[in-house]
Amino acid sequence: MSVRQPVVIDVPFHEDDIQIEQSIDQVQREVDGRELSNSARMLLKTYPTVYIIRGKQHRRARSGYEFDEFVLYVGETNSIVRRTKEHYTDDVTYRTEQGKRVWQQLNRPGSRMLVIGQDHFNKSLTLDLENNFLSYLLASGAEHVTLANGRGNPQANYYTKPELPIITSAVWRKLNHYEPELFPAESVIRDSAIFKASPFRALGKDQIAAEDAILGRLRDLMDGWAAASQPQDPSAPVENGELIVVEGMAGTGKTVLLSHLFLRIMNELGVQEAGGVSAGPRRPVNACLLVNHNEQLTVYNAIMKRLGLQNRDNVVVDKPTPFINKHSEAGHGNGLARQDYPCSPVDIALVDEAHLLLTQGNQGYAGSRNMLVDIMRRARVVVAVYDLEQVLRKSQELDASMKCALFPDGRFSGGKVLCARRAADVSGFPFHVENLLLRQQYRIDACDEIVRWIDDFANGRGVGPIPHDPPREGHRPYEIKVFDSPYDLKLAIEDHASTFDPATGEIVDDTSHGLSRVLATYDWPYSSKSKPASGVWEVRIYREQSGWVSLDKNGDVSEMRHGRASVAAEEPPHTEYFHMPWNYETSATEEEAADERGKAWAEQGHTLGECGSIYTIQGFDLNYAGVIIGPSVCWREGRLVFDPSKSCNSQAINGSEDPEANLRHELNVLLKRGVHGLYLFAVDGALEHHLLEMQA
């Protein structure tokens, strides 16, 4: 598809529309140094445009460190001259005090504006470009940057939509050349976990329907709060609270939906307390976003700081235990005693990866029943994202009564995606519960046959012939490849992870390269509290005459190929010995550490030499995922078997009523990480042989 190059200029940001027009007339060159033609100048003044306003203020920290602080606003307009003047007079949009401060900084003298034009621009295309640039800037990694936009406005299909990715990349390359610190390489951004969880990403139809249903319910509930005869005691625990459960398997866009929903709640909703004047001012919603996953916590903290919703970590974003403790009465000791006294509830709590919440106490959390119940007693409304197929260990399993209350059988029968609001007893407390379902697969960019094959394998239903993804315009076929050596799998993943072509000295910017990592089932020992004799916990496999064999921490054979008993292994020959450190077992250099600060495990460059697990990769996307399937996943008598005796995941096995299900869920999480490809190696000889046969 041939698309003309966009035009990008940089001008001062003025209140006076005449000065803006004069500035455009006086510009001689585009940001990439090309001469600005008269036709391009008229394009910017008369066609729809996209613009990026940059307010900059020099700051000095108490330590003496000096830096530039940026506020950015991305917009689109049919008249850049008129729209610029409107920005100077619009302080109504920024209704919070922090929003007004951002608006004031944006409109300081010295602010500048990038103006972007192209001859195919129309209203829908410029709105989508605005959305794309917001997601890019959110994930740019540039320090001391705040985005002033409250929300995006993604569009459905329109005639020029196929040109959107081409124009986005063409504009961004010019911006990257002009100001690389604010506009880093596109390949870097697309690998970012923040980009993939951006609240500015376009939602699919089922996500939009779910978001509209949730926002509609929240508005109805808030109207009910306002209509009550007496205002609720702000310090009293929640009684008859509300729980909205959003269900969906891995890759159905639950995290993006939650991120999008949270930004809309913070920017669009307000609370009118009972007994007040109905037309009076509404207070901002007291909302928070909780996640019991350190990697996701890092991502959400970065997003909320960039959006100006918090100025430090763990303010509107938090982990469940600190949230529960903050909203518990003092004077009752710690743990169980204190957590039985909830107080000062928030209006709305959004919970991502709710299947990771603990349903029983441990050393860090001595909850009264389980984390979800304790959160529900501290929030008037809870919206929880949940996938029963991603429960990974005993401490996350629901008891039968709670599972029945939250996930009744037949709730989505007949193709339904909504289970209506109903009264439910949850661990002895009355709540109203409703369920929504996301069905569409958004992560795995492949045909339906590929998605079904992965889903059948991941859920233990079987391993049939590996289908092929047909090529389509603008789509690179999804690749499933089985390897007979972990070395070859690792080399293939390293090749896909590289975005630099040493032959040309240029960045490779396509979907075949980017964020890729090796992952493994938890079938090799690991402990955060101790170290083995070698000093590093590793995935260790060696080749014997009959095939590959897994080694345990003592160098013993923990699984033999054809059902033979475990025996002590001799020192494996180095040429036939594969070993790869588990996640967080290697250290970054000082230079790498500075670049990797605030990034999730998979985004850190030095972790390409590590093997990821369910604990570092759950909830994240990879371009290509290379999965080493350990000995706990076997092929016996024509079917998949999950063998707990060969797993090192004691938390999934010990005390569980269904350890095989937990191991199946572990495989499910790992196999559904790859957006463009899945590479496989199986330790079990029979499974390896069957997979290779299915690949032929």
UniProtKB/TrEMBL annotation:
User: Mind telling me which InterPro entries this protein's record contains?
Assistant: P-loop_NTPase, SLFN_3-like_DNA/RNA_helicase
Matches recorded under CDD domains: GIY-YIG_COG3410
Annotated Schlafen group 3-like DNA/RNA helicase domain ranges read 243-684
Under what name is this protein listed? Schlafen group 3-like DNA/RNA helicase domain-containing protein
